Prior knowledge:
The chain is α+β, with helices and mostly antiparallel strands.
Amino acid sequence: MKRNASVALLLSASLLAACSSTSEPLDKKLDYKTDGPKPQGASLEVPPDLTAPQIQNKYTIPGSGTASLAAMDKAEQQQAKAAPVPSADNSGVLSKVDNVAMQRDGNQRWLLVKGKSAAELWPQLKAFWQDNGFVIKSEEQDIGLMETDWAENRAKLPNDGLRKLMDAVGIGGVYSTPERDKFRIRLETTANGIEVYFSHRGMYETYIDEGKSETMWQPRPSDPQLEAAFLGRFMMRLGLNEDQARQEVKQADAPVKNARAQIEGDTLQVVDGFDRAWRRVGLALDRIGLTVNDRDRSKGLYFVKPAKNELDPKGKESGGFWSSLAFWKSSDDKDSTSIKEGAEYRVQVKDAGEGRSQVQLLDSTGSTLNNSLSKTVLSKLQSELQ
């Protein structure tokens, strides 16, 4: 990707990022914009929770021939009676959800929403991310998975006079930061309500030659604070005011508990009951770069593949975006312990009783893997589940 930012701009963006990491999640400055054009037709969609404009014939002359004033008044009254009464769901205002709370376990956060079905939340989630400058790259409502495209937080750009001038003449796009973000959204239906998860993936652009003429995208750690910022904003979207959302975020910032995950042989032992372990493993998989294509909660199975290289056009030769994580890729393509391109694996979560669970990596046939690949994947999960 073409690099437009100057060295001074990159330094200032880095300083802004460093400063923002110490503030509360809802204080983060967010102004995202996705590179490239939006999907065709997106601008013409009727926003969720808004009804399509009603086509009325109130000025049509009733009957044939001439119409009297009394006849016209009578027709208008009949149409008024037939018109739907505005409600919280069709008046253009998102219906308020009283029972929404932020949950936290370790450095993982999610929302628990009561009184709404997954089908009702789905269009609100889609509109929320679009309104925040993201393009929806993929959505699978039947399994509760949505993913945004990569986007740039332009709030990290300096807001100086030169940029304002270039924005005014329509060439503000020459300013760019060396960071991109995307999010994976997941819904889980539980006995207590709908759980909403936002998992962040980030990357930064770096020079790969001494002459600084060529760049490559590299992964950067997921940002739990950024996840919390968007979760808090979505709570406000659901009807909470800013003070209520801040209070929920603050209550969720409980101290991190002691280590609760240990590797024993080919199994990761987790000090969590099945329900909690299931949700935490799902979010951890997104964070470590294993894409969940499907899941079967009744069997405790996540069907996963390594996330594809999406931005670096050089792909394998330059290392690619996710390849530098290196836990699924061996320098020897014949190494049986490396994840093969396009291969599918399974991550199984089992209830071990007494508030404990077990996590294993399986191959596509359901057989347990016990090799260096399994140990590395479980090690990555262990770090996320502490």
